[in-house]
Write a structure and sequence with these properties.
Length: about 130
């Protein structure tokens, strides 16, 4: 089971159906990825909701996501290899975002290129 994959699929399906929000499972990695998507204006906001099943994030959507998904296997990327993975997972140059787990935390591939660090690919969105 991959909670990040479940969260991305739930967000994608809610966007396709034109819903205003989506409920995704809560975890630290998902929370950091959602915060990154919020700062890049792919999401309006999110909040944690406590229920009897466990904690969930209520994600407010703004209709800006066309596609999102998790990257499996979690490829390790060197700081010099970003072009190859941008071509593979994003539709065009300068469009979209790849979320990366680095030693600096969970950041976008653009920030990772600026800092000249590599990491493991988590998910993409455009």
């Amino acid at each position: 089971m991959d909670p990040l994959a479940n969260a991305m699929t739930t967000i994608k399906m809610a966007e396709l159906r034109g819903k205003d929000f989506a409920l995704v499972p809560a975890s630290r990695v998902i929370g950091q990825a959602l915060e990154l998507l919020k700062t890049e204006n792919y999401l309006l906001d999110y909040e944690i909701v406590t229920s009897t099943k466990g904690n969930e994030y209520r994600v407010k959507l703004n209709g800006r996501i066309n596609n999102c998904g998790v990257i499996r296997p979690r490829f390790s990327v060197k700081s010099t290899e970003w072009e190859k993975y941008e071509e593979r997972f994003l539709p065009a140059r300068g469009v979209g975002l790849i979320v990366v787990s680095t030693s600096s935390g969970i950041i976008s591939h653009k920030a990772s290129k600026e800092k000249h660090v590599g990491g493991k690919l988590l998910c993409f969105v455009y």
